[in-house]
Specification:
Distance between the termini: 48 Å
Strand content: 15-25%
Bound molecules: NADPH dihydro-nicotinamide-adenine-dinucleotide phosphate
Number of strands: 11
Strand order of the largest sheet: 1-11-8-7-5-6
Structural class: alpha/beta
Mean pLDDT: 97
Largest sheet: 6 strands, parallel
């Protein structure tokens, strides 16, 4: 029978553990704080930021929101990041992406001190992930690994295929699978014979941003399928990159959308904020 890997349930367990740690830090007089910067009025970004604030509230993490107008300049944003870098109440800084087009994303991300870069996007943290000596793991790939471990799905020696090579999901995902002893193939829009590559996977992780792109003929019988995609189908309903109903009976385990990887991403952000607070206070 196909197992549904339930991100809501797993993230609730992760958050419960984090809440316990946040409470015991508070008993020692240490508060945990996350600053979230949002620039402009992108509706999706507003929803993500609201969800992050809600998670902070649930876990007893202080959240500091900076909602800046669309016309904010690079200089103004750099000034804010500098202030937050030097604010002891703030253990983690997150700048919600994408930023409006006139802003320089790399410049802003690189200005966050690596110790507070809870998204793990700063080149120093990216480099540390590469060599396997990391403080923070990128939230979405880390959430996927957590789901696999929680579900007792061993990655050792498995053929893992990652579809998508973005800096946020695909590339770090492949690196984390490698660190967990998987044999990893990374596919992208120029991959030849994508169907055959996917159909060879014991564990297939899909992060491309195309509704229901992965069909039943692209998955191996008994494979584990992790769907990172978040799209709207033709009826405006939230759906993943995998045609869930079509592949369901063929696979051994699968993540749903919604309720799969999404909730895990936020849980791992909370984990990174806690890690930052511990590193900054328990020296
Ligand atoms: P990007 O657009 O940055 O990257 C998409 C990747 O998919 C690229 O590497 C691209 O290849 C590849 N791709 C696109 N079309 C095809 C195709 N037809 N065949 C093979 N590969 C293809 O997206 P992200 O990585 O940021 O996000 C991917 C999806 O995951 C989106 O739906 C996003 O909303 C979702 N997401 C979900 C999160 C969550 O918490 N659940 C968090 C982050 C993202 P190439 O490099 O060649 O262009």
């Amino acid at each position: 029978m196909t197992k549904i890997i339930n991100g809501k349930e797993i993230s609730a367990a992760v958050k419960e553990r984090i809440k316990g740690e946040v409470t015991s830090l508070r008993e020692k007089g240490i508060e945990v704080g996350l600053a979230v910067i949002i620039v402009g009025d992108d509706p999706a970004s507003k929803v993500y930021v609201a969800n992050k604030e809600k998670a902070c509230e649930q876990l007893g993490i202080n959240s500091y929101k900076y909602a800046l107008p669309e016309e904010t300049t690079n200089e103004e944003l750099l000034e804010l990041v500098k202030k937050l870098n030097n604010d002891d109440k703030v253990n983690g800084i997150l700048c919600q992406l994408p930023l409006p087009k006139h802003l320089d994303e790399s410049l802003i991300i690189n200005s966050i001190v690596p110790e507070k870069d809870v998204d793990a996007f700063h080149p120093q943290n990216v480099g540390k992930i590469m060599i396997g000596d990391f403080d923070f793991l990128p939230c979405t790939p880390a959430g996927v690994i957590e789901m696999l471990k929680y579900s007792n799905i061993d990655m050792t020696g498995k053929k893992c295929v990652v579809v998508g090579r973005s800096n946020i999901v695909g590339k770090p995902m492949s690196m984390l699978l490698l660190h967990n002893n998987a044999t990893v193939t990374v596919c992208h829009s120029r991959t030849k014979n994508l169907k055959d590559e996917c159909a060879a996977a014991d564990i297939l992780v899909v992060a491309i941003g195309r509704a229901k792109f992965i069909t039943a003929d692209m998955v191996k019988e008994g494979a584990v399928v992790i769907d990172v995609g978040m799209n709207r189908d033709e009826n405006g309903k939230l759906c993943g990159d995998v045609d869930y109903d079509a592949v369901f009976d063929k696979v051994s385990a699968i993540t749903p959308v919604p309720g799969g990887v999404g909730p895990m991403t936020i849980a791992m952000l909370m984990q990174n904020t806690l890690t930052a607070a511990k590193k900054q206070n328990l020296k």
